[in-house]
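Need residues for this backbone.
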């Protein structure tokens, strides 16, 4: 009698690939659901779902590298998910909230942002860094899609925050959306912090900081998002000068090595 074969969804050797892809699929479900909530007029929940999608996007790649579950399939799936969750969903939320009042111009802005986001993701997939320039792993080329998806929502987040400031950011929505779209496809270096080394002595303080951020997001969600959105925008010039300084240092070291070889 032949032994009964056990049904397996995937090979036991490849189960480690499931968890990162499950997180990625969870992100795309959150992104699509945010569009549904924006259609219903529940913009606060729509923004929160985009935030959760961004958190899952930050986790899936790190989890994959941690458990050695990276794959080409996961890489492509992640890009497709990013396009839905951060290239379509956020700008559709803005369209239903404000951009639709601008008629054809508002729809054109929606399309421009989505096109810029897909171009940015396509360029990211084709980017390869040589072994001589591994320091570039700490930088993105242009604003990453998750950050862009949250940044264009800043006027809506400001309204949801309930801050009593005499600012009318709602009128800046179309201009901010176009600006972020340009930053997506730009070559401005932005910090990625993928390859940072953490000293054991600072681990406790980093965990404390992360815990504080999550508590702030829990009780002061929109105010915290506004704060970090402003901090991120302020960090763009800093990351540019850091990248430039590192690039100049790399060029000098390469020049010195070539000079020594000649001698």
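Answer:
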């Amino acid at each position: 009698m032949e032994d009964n074969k056990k049904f397996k969804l995937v090979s036991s050797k490849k189960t480690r690939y499931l968890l990162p892809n499950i997180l990625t699929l969870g992100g795309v479900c959150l992104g699509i659901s945010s569009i549904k909530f924006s259609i219903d007029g529940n913009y606060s929940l729509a923004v929160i779902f985009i935030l959760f999608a961004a958190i899952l996007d930050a986790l899936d790649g790190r989890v994959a590298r941690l458990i050695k579950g990276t794959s080409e399939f996961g890489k492509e799936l992640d890009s497709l998910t990013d396009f839905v969750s951060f290239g379509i969903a956020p700008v559709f939320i803005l369209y239903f909230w404000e951009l639709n009042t601008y008629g054809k111009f508002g729809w054109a802005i929606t399309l421009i942002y989505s096109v810029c986001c897909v171009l940015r993701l396509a360029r990211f997939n084709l980017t390869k860094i040589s072994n001589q320039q591994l320091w570039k792993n700490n930088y993105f080329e242009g604003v990453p899609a998750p950050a862009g998806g949250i940044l264009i929502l800043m006027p809506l987040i400001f309204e949801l925050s309930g801050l009593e400031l005499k600012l009318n950011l709602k009128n800046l929505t179309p201009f901010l959306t176009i600006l972020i779209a340009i930053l997506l496809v730009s070559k401005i270096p932005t910090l990625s912090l993928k390859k940072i080394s953490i000293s054991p002595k600072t681990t406790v303080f980093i965990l404390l900081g992360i815990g504080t951020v999550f508590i702030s997001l829990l009780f002061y969600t929109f105010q915290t998002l506004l704060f970090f959105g402003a901090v991120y925008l302020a960090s763009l010039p800093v990351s540019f000068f850091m990248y430039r300084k590192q690039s100049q240092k790399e060029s000098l070291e390469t020049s010195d090595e070539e000079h020594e070889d000649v001698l």
